[in-house]
Amino acid sequence: MTLRDQSASKVLQDTFDELQAQLVKLRQQAVEGDVQKSNRSIEEVVTDLARREGFEVSSVLGVGGMGAVVKARDTKLKRIVALKFLPPEVLNDPNNASELRGEAELASGIQNENVVRIYSWHEVDNAPFFAMEYIEGESLDEMVKRRGRLPVQDALRIIGECCRGLDALHQKGIIHRDIKPSNILISNTGTVKITDFGISRTQDRAAHEAYDQRIAGTPRFMSPEQARGEQATKHSDIYSLGATFFYMLAGRAPVEPASDVKTQLSHVREGRIIPILNILPKLDHEVARLVAQTLQTNVPKRPLDVESFRQDVERTLLSYSLRRESTVKYFAARNSRKIITGVAFIGGLLLGVVVGHKLANAGRVEPQTQEQAPLRLAHEIRRKMEEALLRDPLSQDLRSSANELGAAIEQNNPRRVSTAILDANRALDNWETLCFIATEAKNPNSPNRAQAAQLIQQSKGDVRTMSGLAIEQWTRKRLDATSAALKK
Questions:
Q1: Which of 157, 171, 307, 483 is least buried, going by the fewest C-beta atoms within 10 A?
Q2: At 325, is the pLDDT very low, low, confident or very high (cuts 50, 70, 90)?
Q3: Are 106 and 185 in contact (CB under 8 A)?
Q4: Nearest C-alpha neighbor of 431 from the set 402, 457, 405
Q5: pLDDT at res. 255
């Protein structure tokens, strides 16, 4: 039977049913060839549907229980988009499609950099799909599987951006219902994007709909109330956000593992989660507190809303970074003193004692009190920035950060000093990375020469125009190169 003999929605439903049956068979027999055949079948159907609305499909990005997503080109607006085709269960119920269309219209009004933009809604022969922003990058799930456990500072930054995007949804009355690592995208520019509104519902309608009573979401990251089939709220999203935070830090979900979905749901309903400190006993206790607060089974004990949680996250990031910086400075200085003292003793006992005593007193670093640490650290960083500006007086990022740090020191405002220290450290680190990129671009023997030259040309030598991901990648290359040079 051809596409002309059936409605597009019937073809799409039959194709999804066939795919689901083949996936079950694959789990039992591991027959790889059938996957390719199924993907071609899906691509054939969605290509026809998309073409009739002015889209040229280039590839299938994903197929699952919540629908299919393909990469396509909008021939009218000349841009690359992602098309989300809704699953058969939505096609079977016109009310569901209508509600999701209303939600897509709400979401299309959200212009937040941490939310994947919804462009337009389409229906072809009762088969609904929508066009949305295409993100070049990877999901958070893929990032963790590639890198392993993320550093605390990275996890705090990502979860903070997730909060901004989720708060934008909540402000529109939209409950996501399926926050999880695979629904959080990290673009090539380093921006965090929340995606997949396939099972989210509007807050003011969800309470009265039978559709909302079914269990939806991913068991490992869903809230206990969702696992019980209760109405999802903004606090359900906060729980799932906390489970995602746990996943970044620990490399696994917080719920106890189970061999089947039914048992997994039972564990979620009962709140049987593993405390983060059981996996990471040395984790900063303020960070552990954030995780524990979001994963409370008792809803009122969770953060009041996403915005208040975001503020808590950003305060923790600031204090954690400051404590870490102070500790590094202290131990680095202490170790340097030991080295200098050792060299002095090699020169001769008497001379060594005298010189070592002087050097020890001159370079002596006492443990800093909570009040002293930021100001002393600020003076040290300011000195480094002045040295850097002598070498590169045109660096606007360095100069503005140095001016802000100087003003904070003069005011002796602890909060302003702490914030300025973080910004100054970022500016210094980025400047050193930019110098490394420029060196690599001029080095004919460097394997990174072409990539470095292209980045310098695109950014015009201004680190502020570079993406966060690019800076992160080149910073690692710089540190690796420095480490290799020291070993030699």
A1: 483
A2: low
A3: no
A4: 402
A5: 87
How far CA 356 is from CA of 224, 341, 360, 447, in Å, comes to 63, 5, 6, 44
Rounded (10°) CA dihedral 151, 113, 296, 273: -50
Split at pLDDT 50, 70, 90, the class of 202 is very low
Residue 85: strand pairing partners: 68, 129
Contact 349, 386 (CB under 8 A): no
Query: Global pTM?
Result: 0.59
Q: Residue 417: CA atoms inside 13 Å, Cβ hemisphere, count?
A: 19
Average pLDDT over residues 336-345: 49
Question: Burial level of 144, CB count in 10 A (0-12/13-18/19+)?
Answer: buried
CB 406 within 8 A of CB 382: yes
Residue 208 pLDDT grade (very low, low, confident, very high; cuts 50, 70, 90) = very low
Work out whether the CA dihedral 349, 354, 359, 360 comes out positive or negative.
positive
Strands 67-74 and 201-202: unpaired
Q: Report all structural domains of the chain as residue ranges with CATH numbers, in order of start.
A: 3-133 (3.30.200.20), 137-316 (1.10.510.10)
Structure tokens that stand for 40 in this block: 């071609």
Enumerate the active-site residues: 178
